[in-house]
């Protein structure tokens, strides 16, 4: 026959072991959860730091910097562009003489002989001169 005290002791030992097993499982789950939570926080901080990096300018600051660079570059190029355009200089003497000779009614052959250029060049220069006069 089974002694009721032994059954009671055996049952309480089984319940205690089951309780210990459940408690161990809960603690293991909590430890894993804490580790996962810490990893997520760490990743979130890294992402926030990367997104709010103080070294990278905001779009407005980047545009402002680019605009300043463009203004500086344009300022540096303007004297060179004015020099290339030669707006402040008179045309070469050859073209001034050609214009005067053409206004006197001289033909391309005569102008070519006076300026020492070919007939074709004189013809082209006369055409350019007439186009320049018509655009004024």
Describe what you observe in this structure.
By secondary structure, the protein is an all-alpha fold. Among the domains are: 1-39; 87-136, Arc Repressor Mutant, subunit A (Orthogonal Bundle). The protein has helices at 4-51, 59-85, 93-103, 108-115, 119-135. The longest helix is centred in the first third of the chain and has 48 residues, at 4-51. The protein is rod-shaped, with a radius of gyration of 48 Å.
Summarize the structure in short.
The chain has five helices and no strands. The protein has helices spanning 4-51, 59-85, 93-103, 108-115, 119-135.
Number of strands: 0
Shape annotation: rod-shaped
How does the major sheet shape up? none
| Fraction of residues in H or I helices | over 70%
Low-confidence stretches: none
Task: Assign the structural class, choosing from mainly alpha, mainly beta, alpha/beta, alpha+beta, or little secondary structure.
Answer: mainly alpha
Mean pLDDT: 84
What is the CATH class designation of the domain at 87-136?
A: Mainly Alpha
What CATH calls the topology of the domain at 87-136 is: Arc Repressor Mutant, subunit A
How far apart the termini lie comes to 132 Å
Q: Please identify, by name, the CATH architecture of the domain at 87-136.
A: Orthogonal Bundle
Output the number of helix runs. Answer: 5
Q: SSE order, as H and E?
A: HHHHH
Proportion of beta-strand residues: under 5%
Q: How big is the Rg? A: 48 Å
């Amino acid at each position: 026959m089974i002694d009721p005290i032994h059954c009671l002791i055996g049952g309480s030992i089984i319940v205690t072991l089951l309780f210990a097993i459940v408690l161990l499982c809960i603690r293991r789950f909590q430890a894993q959860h804490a580790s996962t939570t810490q990893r997520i926080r760490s990743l979130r901080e890294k992402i926030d730091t990367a997104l709010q990096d103080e070294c990278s300018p905001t779009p407005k600051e980047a545009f402002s910097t680019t605009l300043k660079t463009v203004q500086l570059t344009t300022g540096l190029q303007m004297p060179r562009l004015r020099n290339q355009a030669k707006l402040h200089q008179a045309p070469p003497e050859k073209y001034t003489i050609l214009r005067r000779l053409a206004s006197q009614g001289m033909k391309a052959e005569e102008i070519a002989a006076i300026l020492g250029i070919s007939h074709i060049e004189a013809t082209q220069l006369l055409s350019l001169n007439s186009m320049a006069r018509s655009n004024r």
